[in-house]
Amino acid sequence: MKDAEIKAANAEKIRKQYHPALCNAMELELYYDKDLLEFSQSVVLNTLPREIDFLVIRRIRPGVVKSELGKIFRKCNIWEFKGYREELSVQVFHKIMSYAYEYVSVHRELDGINDVTLSFLREGRPRNLIKWLESEGFESMKSPQWISRYSRAGYPDIQIVNIAHPEAPKVLRILSHKAEPDDIKSASEYFKQMPEEEQVKSKIVMELSYRINGDQRGGTDMGGFFEVYVDPLQEIIKQKDAELEKKDVELEQKDAELEKSRAEIERLRAQLATQ
């Protein structure tokens, strides 16, 4: 296989990993708001077998979302992810808008498009899209430098999140090509505070971060921080897997004992029947 083909194949692998990794990163970033929210990583639209890969975060009860990403949340919040060098264009915006309208038409509990928000995660600011939004009468809303927010009557509120910005949440920034050792360290420390069941999600995020930043910037030559901060998380997963395997073995032994007991009971019954 030629070098160009290998690079193309690796790029395609990374592209396919972006959706699950960013979905998991969003759930981890919004972990402390989870009692207010419900996450759906794949959404079925209409009655046809048509499944779309975008994240929907629904409010399931009232309350203040602590994460900056949730400041504009309404009943239904649709998220679209674009990986490194993937274009976030006007055409993509229209496509997601069509999904939003279709989602509203299927979910009758929503009163209309005003119950929806649209969020786009991308590395860098999509200047052409932002220029178009402003030319179409979308008004800029107050937001941090790493988020561009817009509103317009008859449309969902919109936010475009630059995950490569230095002030973006580290959980998301490590999935950009501009992650630094301190970003990885901060994200890893955050992940370590999560309950054990969340560690699987953090492993998926870290693995994609390693693929993006390690392949591009020397991997283990980057001060060894991947070994220091990624490997311990992987070790947690291994320990958890080992515990589950041990429990499986114990259950199999108990099943065997029960089966043996059943066989003995049947033997005794047969013996009693002949007396």
Q: What would your notes on this structure say?
A:
This protein has 275 residues and is an alpha+beta fold. The chain has helices at 3-29, 90-106, 127-135, 170-173, 181-192, 199-217, 225-274, and strands at 37-40, 43-44, 51-52, 55-59, 76-81, 116-122, 139-141, 147-151, 157-162. It folds into 2 domains: 3-173, no CATH class; 179-275. A hairpin with a 5-residue loop joins strand 7 (139-141) and strand 8. Helix 6 packs antiparallel against helix 7 (225-274). The longest helix has 50 residues, at 225-274. The chain is elongated. The N and C termini lie far apart (77 Å). Mean pLDDT is 80; it is low at 47-51 and 217-225.
